[in-house]
Structure formats: structure tokens, C-alpha cells
UniProtKB/TrEMBL annotation:
GO terms for molecular function: metal ion binding. Keywords: Metal-binding, Nucleus, Transcription, Transcription regulation. It comes from the Eukaryota. GO terms for cellular component: nucleus. The keyword Nucleus applies. Belongs to the JARID1 histone demethylase family. It holds the Pfam family zf-4CXXC_R1. This is Lysine-specific demethylase JMJ25. It comes from Cardamine amara subsp. amara. It is found in: Nucleus.
Length: 248
């Protein structure tokens, strides 16, 4: 079956010798890849060259193998942090259930050391609302925090959400921090990691707690779904099935 049009009734096809899975019919090659010789297609098809313009590829539905390594990397990072949390709390890995963080629906969460957006697991101080990403947690435990070498402070006036969207806005008193006014926007560099892996906040209130934004095990579940979809895609495009649905 032709990968481009998903049909098997359009005559001769050219099979890819590189992936040994994709095939393109001659009409599709002439219509969509007129500048590429059949010999070149046979050696390495448009899909392998990452230039396939079929509907599925344009929707990224078949880019699962490219996405999977990144998802696995994120998942491995989260698993490692949850293992540390289990050690800190003295419980089994399966028992670790980070609490959901509190933030407004339109609010974006950033790491207070490296300024990277946070989308799921992170550590947060319940006292001063200091948030830190998992990458910075690892650097702190290794004694090599790259994002902040020294304390830096600056004057910041919070004029509210309306001001950020072009309106006048009014000065908002920042009450989330139990610090004096000159230290409220201070970037801490005195974060300390304990032997068990816990990290003490520089405000002195206690350890940073593991928090989540997405539902429990959302990334792990997503990895499983992508793996299943990628495997199904391989079965559908394998030479043995010739594009037919496998029978189970």
C-alpha cells in the first residue's frame, strides 16, 4: 500500500530500501515529489528523509519515534525524582503521590533559578512560594548549580495582571513571601541538599516539597501510549502485512 495515498490500486510502487517499510506509488511520486528520481526514492524514501508531505506526516501522527526519546527522557527524570522522594519520606516508590500545586489557570510556572517553564513535577517551598525545576534539583545535589552563582536582588513593582496586558493596573502588595521588602525578589543561591536528597529552601522555612501540575503518572502513561502507537505503526507498515490490518 502506498504510504502517501494509503491505496493499493494505483499500479506500480517504489519500495524504500532504507527503512524497508514505506512504499510510494508512481502517481503520488509524480504529483508530490516530481523533482526526485525513482532511484533516489528507492534508496531513501521521503519519509526517511523527513520530507514526506502526506496528511499523516504533516499532522505528526507518524513522528512518534522522534517524539518517544524526549518523552522517555522526561519520564526518566521524573522517576528519578520520585525515587528520591520515596527515600526522603521512607516509603515505597508506588506510594509517592505528589500533591497538586496551587496556581491560577492563566498562570505560567517558572523555575526561580534557571527561569525555565515548569509543566509538571517540581519542588516548591510552602512558605515563600519558591519553585525549582527537576534539572536544578539535580544540579544542587551534585553541588553544581549552574543557573545562579551569587545572590542578585533588584527592585520590582508588581502592578497586577491588568498591567501585563496593557492596562493601567495598580501596585499589588506582594504578600506571598515571608521576607522583607528588599529581599522579596532575591534569587537564592544558598539552597542546600541533604544526604537523603531533600533540598532546604534558602528562606529557612524548611525543605522544598515535590509538587505536580499534571495528573498522577501522566507522563508515564503518555510514554506507554506512544510506545503502543509506534509499535502499531510499525506493524501496519511492515512488509509482511503490506499495509493490511494485523489479525490478533
Amino acid at each position: 500500500m502506498c504510504h502517501q495515498c494509503q491505496r493499493n490500486d494505483r499500479g506500480r510502487i517504489v519500495a524504500c530500501q532504507s527503512c524497508k517499510r514505506k512504499r510510494y506509488c508512481i502517481p503520488c511520486l509524480r504529483n508530490y515529489y516530481p523533482g526526485i528520481a525513482e532511484e533516489s526514492i528507492a534508496k531513501k524514501c521521503p519519509f526517511c528523509c523527513n520530507i514526506c508531505n502526506c496528511t499523516a506526516c504533516l499532522r505528526m501522527d507518524t513522528k512518534l519515534e522522534m517524539l518517544l526519546p524526549h518523552l522517555k527522557g522526561i519520564n526518566d527524570e521524573q522517576i528519578a525524582e520520585k525515587l528520591i522522594e520515596a527515600k526522603i519520606l521512607g516509603m515505597e516508590f508506588e506510594e509517592v503521590k505528589p500533591q497538586s500545586t496551587n496556581f491560577l489557570p492563566y498562570e505560567r510556572l517558572y523555575c526561580d533559578t534557571c527561569k525555565t517553564p515548569i509543566f509538571d513535577l517540581h519542588r516548591s517551598c510552602s512558605s515563600c512560594s519558591f519553585d525549582i525545576c527537576l534539572a536544578c534539583c539535580l544540579e544542587i545535589r551534585n553541588g553544581k548549580l549552574q543557573a545562579c552563582q551569587e545572590d542578585v536582588s533588584w527592585n520590582y513593582t508588581n502592578r497586577g495582571l491588568e498591567y501585563a496586558h496593557g492596562e493601567e493596573g495598580e501596585i499589588v502588595e506582594m504578600t506571598d513571601y515571608n521576607l522583607n521588602s528588599k529581599d522579596r525578589m532575591k534569587v537564592p543561591s544558598m539552597l542546600k541538599a541533604m544526604e537523603a536528597g531533600s533540598i532546604t529552601c534558602s528562606c529557612g522555612a524548611g525543605d522544598l516539597e515535590l509538587k505536580r501540575i499534571l495528573p498522577h503518572d501522566c507522563v508515564s502513561d503518555l510514554v506507554k501510549k506512544v510506545e503502543e502507537a509506534a509499535e502499531a505503526s510499525k506493524l501496519l507498515d511492515s512488509p509482511e502485512t503490506d499495509g493490511a490490518m494485523p489479525l490478533f
